[in-house]
């Protein structure tokens, strides 16, 4: 545990979900592979979009409609729909297939292996202080067994613009109904989590379990505290770490 600033009284915590409470990378890899496998079954091999062209299509759509980057499900749906339409499909058929593709991806996306330690720490924390989830992703917290630890969970797209924009942090502050400086936000990303939280007056905890190097020790990307294990949060609310 590394302190960069002194913390005041912490009366609530907000949590990023992906890559903070579980390793999200293999989940997304599997979900993407499931989509390409499905496309390979649906289309002739010559018509299946390459991974590079898929990413290019997504970026083209985001350039036209920047709101898509704040809703990853809508972004994937639109990309699938446009891909089918570029192949000559009628709009109605493209929309139906895009919905089917998104549904398939979401099934895989919610096959998350949440570590036992995450459950242990969240159970202890939630019995002591209120917890709120804040995510830019589209995981279903109920399906992966995390929803019951949180008094509320806010998701980009459904509930506002993605972090580091203010929307989700504001939702959490309003829900908790306590001063922002009494809330500690915990997340793995220095920009979306640390910068976003500090901009809204919350304390920020950088979850760094990958031994990444903090390249700047100034400005709003500097966390108040850095941890490498979730159990390090327990003493901050008066609980023992063991």
What does this structure look like?
There is one protein chain. With 242 residues, the protein is α/β, with parallel strands linked by helices. The protein has helices spanning 25-42, 51-64, 72-86, 91-109, 116-126, 167-176, 190-199, and strands spanning 2-3, 12-15, 131-135, 152-155, 183-187, 203-207, 225-227. The protein has a seven-stranded mixed beta sheet, with helices on both faces. Strand 5 (183-187), helix 7 and strand 6 form a beta-alpha-beta unit. The longest helix has 19 residues, at 91-109.
Could you give a short description of this structure?
It contains seven helices and seven strands, in the order E-E-H-H-H-H-H-E-E-H-E-H-E-E. The protein is α/β, with parallel strands linked by helices.
Strand order of the largest sheet: 1-7-6-5-2-3-4
Low-pLDDT regions: none
Anisotropy-based shape? elongated
H/E element string?
EEHHHHHEEHEHEE
Tell me about the biggest sheet?
A: 7 strands, mixed
Layout: helices, strands, pairs:
Elements: E1 2-3, E2 12-15, H1 25-42, H2 51-64, H3 72-86, H4 91-109, H5 116-126, E3 131-135, E4 152-155, H6 167-176, E5 183-187, H7 190-199, E6 203-207, E7 225-227
Parallel strand pairs: 2-3, 2-5, 3-4, 5-6, 6-7
Antiparallel strand pairs: 1-7
Helix pairs in contact: 1-4, 2-3, 3-4
Please describe the structure with a list of short key phrases separated by commas or semicolons:
alpha/beta; 242 residues; 7-stranded mixed beta sheet
